[in-house]
Amino acid sequence: MTLPDPEAWKQLSPLLDELLDSDDEARALRLAELRSRDPALAQRIESLLSASDPVKASGFLAGNAGGDAAAPTDLGGKRIGAYVIEASLGAGSTGSVWRARRADGRFDGAVAVKLLHLSLIGRAGALRFEREGRILARVVHPNIARLLDAGVTAEGQPYLVLELVAGERIDQHCNALQLDVDQRLKLFADVLAAVSHAHSHLVIHRDIKPNNILVAADGTVKLLDFGIAKLIGDEAEANAITLDGRSVLTPEYAAPEQLQGGPITTATDVYALGVLLYRLLTGLHPTGGDTATASTAELMRSTLDDEPVGLVNALDRAAPDTLQQMGNARGTTPSRLRRRLEGDLENIVSRTLQKRPDDRYRTVTALAEDVRRHIAHEPVSARPDSWSYRCAKFVRRHRAMVAAGLAVVLAVALGLVGTATQARRADAQAVQARHERDKALLQLAYTKSSSDFIAFLLSESLDKPFTTAELLERAEPVLQREFADAPAQRAHLLTELAGLHLTGTNLKKAESLLVSARAAAKEVPDVSLQVGIECLVAYLHGLNDAFEAAQKTFDAVFEQIRTAPDVDRALVGQCLQFRGDVADMRGDTPAAFADLQAALGAIRDPKIEDRTQAISTRNSFGILLGKMGRPAAAAAEFRNALAELEDMGRGRTMMAGAIQQNMAVLLSRAGQSAASFEADRRALDIARGFDGVTPSLESNYAADLVELGRVQEAIPLIEHAIAGAKSRGDRRTAANIAIQGARAWCLSGDLPRCATIASAGKSELVALLPAGHASFGNVALCEARLALAHGDLSQARARLREAEAIFAAATEQGRPRIRVLTLLARVELRLGDLDAAEADAARATAQAREALAGFDHSEWLGSALVAQGMVQHARGQHTAAEASWRAALVELEAAAGDAATATVEARSLLRADGTMNLSNMATAAMR
């Protein structure tokens, strides 16, 4: 339904109010009268009334569009695809939602099944429902309810199977626990993270409201129902569906452009988020009316015509009892709540609720950054609703009247104030010039002292065999003496030296240097120098797992930045990166994501001297994206960082090697074996040039060689990596390398050595780690491979099932679980249990497809398809088996390369039509 423009609405609104409140008989008489007087007007009114009837019937005005309306006929016990319906969870304008369980025994656990209303099964409803499935499949985020399955019933009714979220509405949750304003803002920040993630995948929600946001018992926020989401850039499909079906929105949370049938953009969600935030903070609606009793027309008219009531003004208008209830629900008094909401927070909400989309926050990320800044007591971007701002709006409304008066006033005023203004401006410019001169001289002094000191260190190592660590040790006493009377330069160089020790993971030395730098910096009126030191101190706290101390230090730093606005943006970006890295260390992914994004924004188009810092931030952001399940996006960040280093002539530096290693780990976990091998090879080549080869890097490269079937090359590297980790006293790393590297000896035929190394690694891990740790999944997998090598299939299956259970309970379930399921399918096939083999191959294939996460192909999917084809061949389904192997070969050639063991096996199966003997299958299975 396309709604009238504002001018037409002024004529239609009173008539619509009158008719909506009339009974059927009175409405018919009034319409007849209108038709005789103005047929066109009557037709428009009838169209609006017709559209409002289903909306009212579905309970929209009571806020029930998302699932509080009565459910249709009981479906308990009905089978929908692989699921059996248990109970109704609710119904709304687009569909009904039911609690269900998987019926085929593949896995336990309740799910939510969403069915399209029978009245909407026409072309438009089906298309909308199919589009919801496509959208949800693309949007995977911890704060978004996940799509598990989709299909169509035997009766032709589409359905979706979604994660069942047990929780309560966000507003009810906040009130029940009497959460204060900051606690509510933190929950709201999780909502923003979810919506921002959806927008980054080109999806607009369009129906954000409390019904669609639940908070679980553990405090996790979940955003529900993308049933009316619109794909950005997919206007043709979205518009066709809207025109052919019913317009779906919730008037209470709809933006003006939604009500007017205008373009839907990310700003539409920003408006709804503003209404939601207003509700969380005050319990009221921005229109100031009672939305529970208001008609559709009243809500629409108020949203289109009335200015939103400010947060503080809303409190001032509230009755004493209501005001007291507001304060109680937020764990405070009315007066304190009023003080908490005024200022920046009111400006933030006001900006989200602007009538024109262009006047709101451009992105949800920008809104999230302002919310974060407000919580952190940092300046926000939202413009204050100041006297000058209100005057500007008044002038725009009354240009002619103001212009006439202003001409007279200016003629008098300009002559009086011109000279004084020029004098003040000259004074201000002189002060600013002196400030900039002093700042430039100080930076020049820093640069000169750094250059001189680096020259000294290089000259020390020209003809003497000093290691980097030895040079750094020699550096400190020299600079302490040389710059004893220059505290600014001494503090600057000590900070740089501390940073170098941090890079070398010498945390204790870095800490002692920062203590000295702090003391020297107190003698210097240089805020930027002090900020840089404090940021490093906070980061060091994080590296030492002292997260509370880190947070306190960061809070003080950003308060200092707020009161000293001339701090260089690159330094602000570095502090944001450090805070983001520490947030990542403590597991606060949303905070880390927000800070690292802000850091990249702060140092966009960096100066030459800041390019290395920008690259470091990009590296941190790539690591975080990988942890968030976005490996393709992470790999892009790493490649950009490496390209920038190459452009600077630093393609073979330690920094480049570290980024190559990060990318190799990421690509390996994503099943991109060929690309992982190349990244590991480059990282190892760089590290050897600096004598900086770590046991982890060496063992990762060895694992790549095993994947390529180059076992004899891998064995000495694994032995050297184990010895290196032991010499460092890193027992856990040594044990993990032994467990994961033992298969090389199994594949080479040296089973006694394989068993000895595996046993030693297991003993160390048992002594170091708690039972059930994910590392014991690798132990069970290693023992399964050893059992296979001895031909003990029953033992191999038992150990694989044990590994699968451990990985299923772990946080990171991707690569190891897929590999275990693939191997388990092969073992069960050899044991003759075709049903179990088929089920596990199907699970491996499904999980591998889900784990693609932005990549087109993966080794895990290719290997799973090989196993699936083997099961199909054993069942006599030769055409299906060939199709699986051909699909597997495409995956493996693209992701693992032509020479990989898995690729060679898939090609052999196709040539031999699956007639490999069992011993060959066993050897292949040990990969």
Report on this structure.
The strands form three sheets. Strands 1-2-3-4-6-5 form a six-stranded antiparallel beta sheet, with helices on one face. A three-stranded antiparallel beta sheet has the order 7-9-10. It has a two-stranded antiparallel sheet with strand order 8-11. The chain has 927 residues and is mainly α. It has 40 helices and eleven strands. The longest helix is centred in the middle third of the chain and has 62 residues, at 399-460. Helices cover 66% and strands 6% of the residues. Among the domains are: 6-57; 167-382, Transferase(Phosphotransferase), domain 1 (Orthogonal Bundle), CATH 1.10.510.10; 611-689, Serine Threonine Protein Phosphatase 5, Tetratricopeptide repeat; 814-925, Tetratricopeptide repeat domain (Serine Threonine Protein Phosphatase 5, Tetratricopeptide repeat, Alpha Horseshoe).
